[in-house]
Structure formats: C-alpha cells, structure tokens
Amino acid sequence: MIKVLFFGQLKDQLQSAGINMHSEASQSVAALLQKIIEDQPQWAQDLQNERLLVAVDQVMAQPESLVSPTAEVAFFPPVTGG
After folding, report:
1. CA proximity to 3, closest of 44, 41, 56, 77
2. Spatial separation of the C-alpha atoms in residues 11 and 76, rounded to whole Å
3. Distance of CA 8 to CAs 4, 12, 24, 41, Å?
4. What percent of the chain has pLDDT above 90?
C-alpha cells in the first residue's frame, strides 16, 4: 500500500490529508500521480501544477523517480521563505 500525503495549501485545496493507493509493482511518481487523478478527477487542476514538489520516503523526488509498493509519497506546494 502506497501512503500518499498532501501538505500545506495543497492539503487545504484537496480537502484531504492523504490517501492510500494499492500497487503491485514499482511505478514512477508521474504514473502514480496520473492514477491519483484518474481516481480523483476533481483534484486534477491542483495536482497538475508543474511547480508541485514531491518526496518519496522523505527524499525529494522527480517525476521519473520510482515509487515502491510500500512507499510513502508526499506532495506539497513550493516552499517560500525569507
């Protein structure tokens, strides 16, 4: 089971702190994101933001990064600070 978490403004926009996704095999972050959008089409606009950041097992990741069937994946908006 892949544990998918949403943080920051994204959590508020989706009105969800996270979901669990069943997976038999490893897949890319991009493929996982596409599956989430297929399952939750109302989230498409917020999740298709090219500036969205992602971490897999608490390590920053890219769209082509692999996600194991037991991974924790976190999506969050870009962080700003000063």
Report:
1. 56
2. 8
3. 14, 7, 29, 20
4. 89
State the CATH number of the domain containing residue 15.
Answer: 3.10.20.30
Domain count, the chain: 1
* pLDDT class of 82 with cuts at 50, 70, 90: low
Would you give the DSSP letter of residue 12?
H
Q: Nearest CA to 68 among 30, 31, 27?
A: 27
Domain hosting residue 9, numbered range: 2-76
How much of the chain is in helix, strand and coil states, percent to nearest 5?
A: 30, 30, 40
pLDDT digit string (tens) for 44-70?
A: 999 998 889 999 999 999 999 999 999
The region that residue 42 occupies, defined by phi over 0 for left and psi between -120 and 50 for alpha, beta otherwise, is: alpha
